[in-house]
Structures are given as structure tokens and as C-alpha cells.
Amino acid sequence: MESYFAEDWEEGAGHAHLLFRQVPEEVKDTFLWSVMLRFSSPEDSLRLFSVQMLKMRRSTPPDGKIYTHILQSCVRLRAIREGRQVQAQALKDGLITRLALATTCVHLYAVCREIDSARQLFDEMPERSSVSWNAMLSGYCVNGFAEEALLLFKEMVRSEMRTTKRTSLMLLSACSQIGDLALGSAIHSLVLKTIPNPLGCPFTGTALVDMYSKCGSLGSASSLFHAMSGKNVITWSTMVAALAIHGQGKAVMELMNSMEKEGILPNAVTFTSLLSACGRAGLVEEGLRLFDEMQGRFNVSPTKQHYGCVVDLLARSGMVEEAHQFIKNMPVKPDAVAWRALLSACRMHGEAQLGGVIGKILIGLKQPPEETFSLADSEDFVALSNVYAFSERWEDVQSVRTTMKKNGLRNKAGHSSVHNIYT
């Protein structure tokens, strides 16, 4: 049966499933089930498991490996409802404490953004491997809980669990989110101890470039980038983004030329960074040219994010009306990010009338009682209030503040923190 899956995927998989259905139920053992589930697509695995579950339980009860295969399909599909059902059945069968199965459950909840459930499962595990720790670390990092990831790493160190390459990558991600250069340098030292020749690996090298850039050290990021022996399109895109966030628009264009000379074609992520850099540097003509070349020259379809970058590019350069027309003519529905860029430009350039219209549109994207306002929404109210204040429209300012108070919104407060990963 494995030979069928080695053929042309669609045709081979079809033959394998046909053969599997013809096998008598009493002959289908756990090995045969494991082969089918492991080599089938995630969708087919879930469908096969749900349809055949009752028959399977009468002949050969599923073991931990089978449940793990199914949960891995749930992870790939972000199928949390089906994953809960599989977990409940594994718990009923007394298999949930199996290491691989429990780790996959943690991973499932983490990728589905149910981080508290993932942590509860992690804490309840009778034993943990480095894979288990990395699954929880990854969950924290992917969901933006960098502080919690670092605290978990401290627990990992105290438990004397061996750190792996993936551990180091997760820690670099956490440092990138926090922007702590001293902490990032400490993690870099850990990387050098756990990963031989990190600059020869595109994933590790790229993570280091990203970390130093987001921690404010563009020089270190650039030095590491040029020292890397294995660069891929993600590496180049990361360096483009590094230059962009530091306002190095002309350097970005030079790097783009070098990228093409190396035979690396830019992708959607690269263009997001390129357009962002042009916006920060006021390179309107270059930015609009790149936007046109995305489809015509590089066959990259623009997304909402790319359209938003063009709105920001025009708005930052004082071309407020052009930005407004662009956003109205977009083939995709503009999101809050695009409207916020335009609202910010209205305040900056004294366009109070247009700013009032844009602000009301932005606030109208989320209205109670269907949805409650969030902290991000409070910033939209404040931005609209600032537009009115800039033009001395004090009655409108008071109206916005009254609405904020009515909905329990306040200005966003900042915070800072100090880390020591080994104490």
C-alpha cells in the first residue's frame, strides 16, 4: 500500500484508498491504519478516521500512534473541534498520557490560539521531552506571548532539559518581539553553543538578522547577513525589512538590485518590506514603480497589505487626496490598517474634514453591541480626536471623548521590563 503513495500523489492515493476499503475489517490492524493515516492528506485522514471509527473500534482499537497521526492532521488543518473530539476519545481509552500524543495535543491548542488550554495540558504531562517544551515555547511565541516564552525557558533550564536548534529559534523570536538587545546577545551566545555554524543555516542566520534588527542593532544585522553562506528569499526579505524599519530607503533599493543579481526573485513578503521602506523614505516614484512591477514583472498578486503600503506611501508624502482615491478604487475591501494610515495623514496635513469622514468609517468597522471595542479601537478614537484638535474643532473633540468614556475606552499605556534568562 505504501508503494501506491509513492506514485503520482492523487492517482496513487486513490488506488491506496480503494485497496484499503476492500480489505476485510478483521484484517485491518493498527499498522495498516497507521500507514493509511500517515500518508493520506490531512482532510482524507480526518474523513477516513471519522467514517471508519466505529468499525475500527470493533476490530482493532486505535493506539497512541493512530491518535497522534489524526491529531497531526488536526494541527495542519487548525481543526480544533475535531481535535477536541480525538483528544476526548484518547482520554477515554487511557492513552492521553503518551508522550507523543500529549505533545501533539499541546501543539494543536497552541496553533489554534488556545494558549491557556495548551499550557494546562503541558503542566499535566507526567513526562516531557525537548519536543514538548519546544511545542509550548512555539505556542507562546507564535501567539505573541514573548514574556511567557522566556519564563518557560527558565523552567526548561532548571529542569536540565536539553535545548535544541528549535529552542534557540523560538528564543530569538521572543527577543525580536520584546526588542531587548542585551537579552538577544545572550541568546546569540546560546545559539553558538547549540548550533554548529549557525550562519550556514538559512533559518538560524535569518532569525539572528531579524532579532538584531528588531532590537535596534542594524549594524549587527547587516554584518550577520553579509557573513551568511546560505541565504534564501526569506533571508533577503528579512534584511530588506531590517533596512525598511530603520528608514534606509535607498539602501533597500540597492539591496533589491543585489538580490536580483544573485538570481533571487522577490516574493510577497519582500514586496511588503520594499513598499514599507519606500513609504518611510518618501520614495513615492520608486514605490509606485515597484507596486506596478509586482504583477507585471514578478507575477506576485498584491494583497490587502500591499495596497495598505501604497496608501501609507502616498499619505506620508502629503498626497492625501491621491491616497483617498487609491483606497476607494482598491479591488479588495480596505482594512483598518489602510484607513488608519490615511487618518494619520489627515491629522499630519490638517485635513480635518476628510479626517472626520475617515475616522467615522474606521470606528464604524466595529460597532457595539455586536462587538465590543478593544484597546486598538481606543487608538482610533484618539487619532480622530487629534484630527479635530489640530483644526481646533473642540466640540467634535469633546464628542469623541464622550463616546470613548461611554464605551469604557482609555488611552493605551506603555510598559517596560528587564530580563535575565538564567535566573
Helices and strands, with pairings:
Layout: H1 2-5, H2 9-22, H3 30-39, H4 42-59, H5 64-77, H6 80-92, H7 99-111, H8 115-124, H9 130-142, H10 146-158, H11 165-178, H12 181-194, H13 202-214, H14 218-227, H15 233-245, H16 249-261, H17 268-281, H18 284-296, H19 304-316, H20 320-328, H21 336-348, H22 352-364, H23 375-390, H24 394-406
Characterise this structure.
The structure is a single chain. Among the domains are: 206-302, Serine Threonine Protein Phosphatase 5, Tetratricopeptide repeat (Alpha Horseshoe); 322-412. The protein starts with a helix and ends in a 17-residue tail after the last helix. It has helices spanning 2-5, 9-22, 30-39, 42-59, 64-77, 80-92, 99-111, 115-124, 130-142, 146-158, 165-178, 181-194, 202-214, 218-227, 233-245, 249-261, 268-281, 284-296, 304-316, 320-328, 336-348, 352-364, 375-390, 394-406. The model is unreliable at 1-12, 367-376 and 413-418 (pLDDT under 50). The longest helix is centred in the first third of the chain and has 18 residues, at 42-59. The chain contains 24 helices and no strands. It is 72% helix and 0% strand. Keywords: Repeat.
Summarize the structure.
The protein is mainly α and 423 residues long. It is built from 24 helices and no strands. Among the domains are: 206-302, Serine Threonine Protein Phosphatase 5, Tetratricopeptide repeat (Alpha Horseshoe); 322-412.
Observed structural traits:
423 residues, mainly alpha, Serine Threonine Protein Phosphatase 5, Tetratricopeptide repeat, 24 helices, repeat
Distance between the termini: 53 Å
Low-confidence parts: 1-12, 367-376, 413-418
CATH fold title of the domain at 206-302 = Serine Threonine Protein Phosphatase 5, Tetratricopeptide repeat
The CATH top-level class label of the domain at 206-302 = Mainly Alpha
State the total count of DSSP E strands.
0
Report the CATH superfamily of the domain at 206-302: Tetratricopeptide repeat domain
Order of helices and strands: HHHHHHHHHHHHHHHHHHHHHHHH
Structural class: mainly alpha
